From TrEMBL:
Gene3D superfamilies on file: LysM domain
Single GO MF annotation: lytic endotransglycosylase activity
Protein name: Peptidoglycan-binding lysin domain protein
Record organism: Acetohalobium arabaticum (strain ATCC 49924 / DSM 5501 / Z-7288)
CDD domains per the UniProt record, alphabetical: LysM
Domain LysM, chain residue ranges per copy: 481-525
Pfam families reported in the protein's UniProt record: LysM, SipL
Length: 534
């Protein structure tokens, strides 16, 4: 049987380089002019408002803007109402270069930035310094079309080494930019708008995707928020906040996809720009620019030839660096814990809005059959104290407690030693006053885990079969033998096999067209001792 190679062409997401770094960043926030001085900081929160990644030579530029919120008790004159709670916010910008030696401009970058912990220092009555610890992951990939040899016929099976690969064959991808427009009305209980201070917009949850012939439908919800100065009869210009939602649905053209196929869709929706307009004192208009990237893949399993122990064939190899997606899963879990008022603080009369929970430093460990996600919840309670009538009335206090959580997310095929990507988010927080010294917090968490296995190996991408040699001297050239052209042969393959050049074979055989040789044609080539294996 003649030796023949079978192959398959796939388009893979080739991992060029990746790294994870931790960094602590600090910035100072100043109380706005219209706000009173700080007596005591109650709580500081941080969230990522914008994140931009650009691939440069040798790494990735990460530009991140953190939105920092500060809740504090004001320092006001004695004849004014005491201990009013105020809130202000501001940005902290972060710029960092993640070194990835093999990165080049034009490659695709995947990032995951998480806030691990936030702390603050009181500088003076108008200024605090906020420090956030970030965990930044950056991975640079490029889409490569590769030919993978899957089998070789005509050789004993024991001479062929294969590896099972679980790949995502990239069928198609596209990126579009769209503008979501809408209006949000001020709630009835809120005063009308005098002046808009700031607007924000964030994607709620993950977008939903539907594959149709030639496109992917991407649907989702954007939550828009408005910080504004209220128009009041007193003219005291209090600052208020309200929010509302917009839905969007767009078709991303990906011509190569079909709804009949078993496909996976990755979609990344990024808020690029937000602008607001004053419609009237009860309505704010929004224009939100979205960038929607969609990649459609087909999960496949391929037995790839990685080595051949035979002189009947020569092979070409190429290094393959990919992440095999083993599986992913999302679960919801409810954590209940108590926040106790410590000794020295007064009893609770009433719990205030702003009581919340924050996930701290989640870790993910792959075990057989899934991912163990551990972490800590910081429960924060803001309350009005129950104090005797002859003491200062309605002082605001802050207490906190920490709860550990641990949960197993089932992921079929996961094995110890693989890598996990995990994300834990707070979906909802409820609170109830059990007694004047204890508040029960019920936190609903959404946990996402994806298990991957990084594979780096050399695979066979092409075969050059060694065809039979007819041991008959060429006329008047005893140092040559006759070679019979076989199916699939080219002059390049023949010349490469016998250590000569295409030009030498063309000259020795007076071949008029080097791109055309016929099966069964006899060629004179240098005699070579061959003792093929297999």
């Amino acid at each position: 049987m003649a030796v023949q190679c079978r192959d398959r062409t796939v388009r893979v997401e080739y991992v060029v380089d990746e790294d994870t770094v931790r960094e602590s960043v600090s910035g100072e926030l100043t109380v706005p002019d219209e706000k009173p001085d700080i007596e005591r900081v109650l709580e500081v929160t941080t969230e990522i408002s914008t994140e931009t990644a650009t691939v440069e030579e040798g790494g990735v530029d990460l530009d991140i803007e953190l939105e920092v919120g500060v809740l504090y008790v004001a320092d006001v004159p004695e004849d004014d109402p005491q201990q009013p709670v105020h809130f202000f916010e501001g940005p902290v910008s972060v710029s960092n270069f993640v070194e990835l030696p093999n990165a080049e401009p034009g490659m695709h970058v995947i990032t995951d930035v998480q806030i691990i912990r936030t702390s603050s220092d009181f500088i003076d009555e108008r200024t605090i310094e906020v420090t956030a610890t970030l965990r930044k992951f950056a991975k640079v990939v490029e889409f490569r079309q590769m030919t993978i040899v899957t089998d070789i016929t005509g050789l004993e099976h024991g001479l062929i080494d294969k590896e099972l690969l679980r790949l995502n064959d990239v069928i198609d991808e596209n990126v579009i930019t769209e503008v979501v427009a809408g209006e949000i009305d001020v709630p009835e209980e809120k005063p009308p708008i005098e002046r808009i201070l700031r607007v924000q917009g964030d994607l709620i949850g993950e977008p939903e995707t539907t594959v149709v012939d030639g496109a992917v439908i991407v649907e989702g919800t954007i939550e828009g928020g408005v910080v504004y100065v209220a128009a009041t009869d007193e003219g005291d210009q209090p600052v208020h906040f309200f929010e509302g939602t917009f839905t969007f649905s767009y078709a991303v053209d990906v011509p190569e996809v079909s709804e009949a196929d078993d496909l996976s869709v990755f979609t990344d929706v990024t808020v690029r720009q937000i602008t607001a307009s004053f419609v009237d004192d009860g309505t704010t208009g929004f224009d939100i620019v979205l960038e929607i990237f969609t990649k459609v893949t087909e999960p496949i399993q391929i037995e790839a030839v990685v080595d051949v122990d035979s002189d009947k064939i020569e092979v070409e190899k190429e290094l393959l660096r990919v992440e095999e997606v083993i599986g992913e899963n999302t679960i919801t879990e409810t954590i209940t814990g108590n926040v106790n008022v410590p000794a020295g603080k007064p009893d609770v009369e009433r719990i205030l809005a702003g009581t919340n929970a924050t996930v701290l430093n989640p870790t993910a460990t792959v075990q057989d059959g899934g991912v163990l996600i551990d972490g800590e919840i910081e429960g924060a309670v803001i309350y009005v104290a129950d104090v005797p009538e002859d003491e200062l009335q309605q002082p605001v206090h802050f207490v906190e407690n920490f709860f550990n959580f641990s949960n197993f997310v089932d992921v079929s095929g996961a094995e110890e030693g693989m890598t996990a990507y995990a994300n834990v988010s707070v979906v909802n927080v409820r609170y109830s006053l059990l007694n004047q010294r204890t508040v029960e917090l019920t936190t609903t968490l959404q946990k996402f885990a994806k298990v991957v296995q990084f594979r780096q190996l050399e695979i066979v991408t092409d075969c050059i079969a060694v065809s039979p040699i007819v041991d008959e001297p060429c006329e008047d050239r005893p140092s040559y033998v006759v070679y019979v052209v076989q199916p699939g042969d080219t002059l390049y393959k023949i010349a490469r096999r016998y250590g000569t050049t295409i030009d030498a074979i063309v000259e020795a055989n007076d071949i008029p067209d080097p791109d055309r040789i016929d099966v069964g044609q006899k060629l004179c080539i240098p005699k070579k001792i061959i003792d093929p294996k297999g």
